Amino acid sequence: MFAGLQDLGVANGEDLKETLTNCTEPLKAIEQFQTENGILLPTLQSALPFLDLHGTPRLEFHQSVFDELREKLLERVSAIASEGKVDERYKKLEDLLEKSFPLVKAPSIQPVVMCVMKHLPKVPDKKLKLVMADKDLYKACAVEVKRQIWQDNQALFGDEVSPLLKQYILEKENALFSCDLSVLHNFFSPTPKMRRQGEVVQKLTQMIGKNVKLYDMVLQFLRTLFLRTRNVHYCTLRAELLMSLHDLDISEICSVDPCHKFTWCLDACIRERFVDNKRARELQGFLDGVKKGQEQVLGDLSMILCDPFAINTLALSTIRHLQELIGQDMLPRESPDLLLLLRMLTLGQGAWDMIDSQIFKEPRMEVDLITRFLPLLMSFVVDDHTFTVDQKLPLEDKGPATYPTTIPDLFPKFLQEHRIACEIGLYYVLHITKQRNKNALLRMLPALGETFNDLAFSDIFLHLFTSNLTLLSDEFTQEEFCTSLFDDFFLPTCLRKENVHRHVLRLLLHLHHKVAPAKLESLQKALEPPKQSGEALKELYNQLIEKLELRKPSPVQGAAETPTVDLPLPAAAPPPSL
């Protein structure tokens, strides 16, 4: 409590204790101590007895005066930091810090010392080391002071950032497994600006401030974690952090990050969920503008394009472009905008390999993707249109057309062997599901059993797929539909992938009332979690069981005991004769 007072030549509690121990007249000694260490204001001495008459303790009076002076001093420190010439004001603050720092551990004075340090752009290293060595002081100091400590202590900064990164990933995973299934409110519904208001992004933005060195450290943490885990949510955070600094107009960082303008343009596309022609030209200009010797920037650009929100926008735009090409009787290779979307998808999906290998070169786009796979996908779209138009024709004009139930062998092969083809193919499945196109979905489902890196069983696809399936809720009453969806697609994978198991339970929690009782009973048995499964899976299963129990009809009480009463009906009177 009295730490540092002796260093400044001010008497403390220990001095009073020693004086009282060695004196013969304690009352006189106390009076002398009060006179020497009290408020040196002559007119105050005659007024103090009035406080005694009102029963106000001297401690309470001195504490209130102290608090008032401290507030005035804090205001004055803030004023000094913002007025006069830069050199002069910082010289004043440095002198004040030198005088007050011995009292930094005194709780009553500590706020003043911390305020002085907060306003100094460069706190002396000696004092920073003393603060860093004391946990309580480190905790109490402002983030502006901590930045100066962190920039030379990467390990300490990593300890501060690590819990935030874990929290961020957990929030993203929880969002993907949300029990609320909705097409309108899914993982990709929040706008980029809304996402940037999240707690983790805001805290990291505050911790970095305008410090380029700290920003580079965070980016290095994100790259390392992305390489270690392959978790694409780190790519999302990389883009969100840059755009959060952009929102605050932190030019010190935005001007030195070579990805800033590219990310800004892509952010606008993500907001609109579409890459229009104008922005496509801008994005292409950034990619073409990477000069020789600066290829390393491709690593960061690929990471930004690997963000699931960017992939979602690019894939949706690709499906839309394919539909437009059909209307224009054009092939994929004839559309520069489509080729650019594929180029960015390829760069984004190659992010991990590029950063891991440190070979900063754009991946080569597969020719077969453009000349064989996309035309095949367009033929599926044509099948959909043809069948839809045929169904609307008058009976006499209808042909014997039935919806195709098979797909060429080339299609599943592309889904298994080509990453970009698989991504676009899955977004086509999402598209037809959202269009409530049951025939097209049943046609495509068999091809999804084996896909590149099991992408059809990734959390992001399953989150969107289960949400879109809610639009086909009436089809869950049909045995054929449930068999194709559950028995042939979902259930074979549930045993080896717990995430798939969880997504199926999420779907049934939402649509169990539509499924036929016999089918629901067999699904209930098939989806019972193994003993070694995680708590989240068991909790979901228990929720489903509870819902099913509530739906069971309650037995009619006393039905057996109620005797049937057979009363003879009176004979009908004959009609009167006419």
TrEMBL record:
InterPro entries: COBRA1 (IPR010405). GO terms for cellular component: NELF complex. It holds the Pfam family COBRA1. It comes from the Eukaryota. Residues 553-578 are annotated as: Disordered. Keywords: Elongation factor, Protein biosynthesis. One of its GO terms (biological process) is negative regulation of transcription elongation by RNA polymerase II. GO terms for molecular function: translation elongation factor activity. The keyword Aminoacyl-tRNA synthetase does not apply. This is Negative elongation factor B. It comes from Podarcis lilfordi.
